[in-house]
Specification:
Blueprint: E1 2-3, E2 10-11, E3 14-22, E4 25-30, E5 34-39, E6 45-48, E7 53-60, E8 66-73, E9 77-82, E10 88-93, E11 99-104, E12 111-116, E13 120-125, E14 132-137, E15 144-148, E16 151-156, E17 159-163, E18 169-173, H1 175-204
Antiparallel strand pairs: 1-3, 2-3, 3-4, 4-5, 5-6, 7-8, 8-9, 9-10, 11-12, 12-13, 13-14, 15-16, 16-17, 17-18
Length: 215
Amino acid sequence: MCTDGSAFVCMNNRVVIRSLVTPEGCLVAMDDGAIVWRPTHGTRSQIKLEAIATVLLALKGPTGCYDIVAIGDSNGGITLLSLPRLEEIEKFSIDGGIVRSITAVQDTLGKYLAATQDGSVWVIGTEVPGRTLLLFTHSSPITSLRLLGDKILIQSGWNRHTYDWTGATTDEFDGQQQFKVKATNRANRRARILESEQHRIQQKQPLMLDLPAFG
């Protein structure tokens, strides 16, 4: 489970900006670049990165326990650390600004997809030619991405897009359009309620009759 920094927690004048909880312990990323592993049982580990962490992804090993964490940072770096010792396994660097999302490619050893602030989608890993390869670029910043079979699902704000590995779009969903339809329906309901209320008020007004004048 990964949470963002919407609920900040101060620790020794530092701020937790990302956190990740596993059955084995809790991993937190600080605003000074520090990464701290607090195991359920055992000794705490700590390491400091060159940039602030923006994404945390824990991965299970052959034993079924989480033994690797992939960390994306604000400089376009992706660092693989071991758990629980936080020893550096690999480090990659991609263009496109802040790393916004990371997902592991199933059935491969050490291959990942990463998305950046400018919409770039990369495949990285030791078995990738040149270690990093730009797959395609989305038209707007990417909020998150995940794999579903051979499809790459991208969330960008309200909108969702489905790509194949060549960068071709296979499906799109405009969440903003759905929001506009809901907003229009709400406005229509409010107008009908107001019209009904005005009609009710008019019916309650007393009937004014001409009364005879007495002199």
